[in-house]
Design a protein that fits this description.
131 residues; mainly alpha; two-stranded antiparallel sheet; elongated
């Protein structure tokens, strides 16, 4: 087995382990944390990834976030999102589409958002493509 075949096998095993961790732990544990390698891929390809997709990945990483927290994570990844969060993009493309749901309020009264099951499946598919 040459090194490229070995790398493919290792990547496949990593995806399987991540999938199993997600099935076992759900969203509240280690499975929701992005690996360093995946986060590196996101940063390297951030201009090629749509804002909506990055929002789903951000909510997969850490459920129950405010819009401000999501914006901050996108900033950390180097994503320029302009006025995407202003107006109806967030509500129309994510909430009304059934990918994201309102999930209570923070201590300061800001709305919190989490993924729906449909959103989790979409985010898992996106993460698989990025790995």
């Amino acid at each position: 087995m040459d090194s490229s075949e070995l790398e493919k096998v290792i990547l496949d095993l990593q995806k399987r382990v991540t999938s199993l961790e997600h099935a076992i732990y759900g969203n509240g544990s280690a499975s929701a944390t992005l690996t360093d390698a995946l986060e590196k891929h996101i940063v390297e390809k951030v201009d090629e990834i749509g804002t909506q997709d990055l929002v789903l990945v951000a909510l997969m990483q850490s459920p129950k976030q405010t819009k401000a927290q999501i914006r901050q994570l996108l900033n950390d990844w180097g994503k320029a999102y302009g006025s995407w969060f202003d107006g109806g993009n967030f509500s129309g493309r994510l909430v009304k589409a059934g990918l994201v749901k309102r999930d209570g309020s923070s201590n300061s009264g800001e709305e919190l958002f989490s993924l729906t099951k449909k959103g989790e499946m979409e985010a898992s598919n996106l993460i698989s493509k990025l790995e």
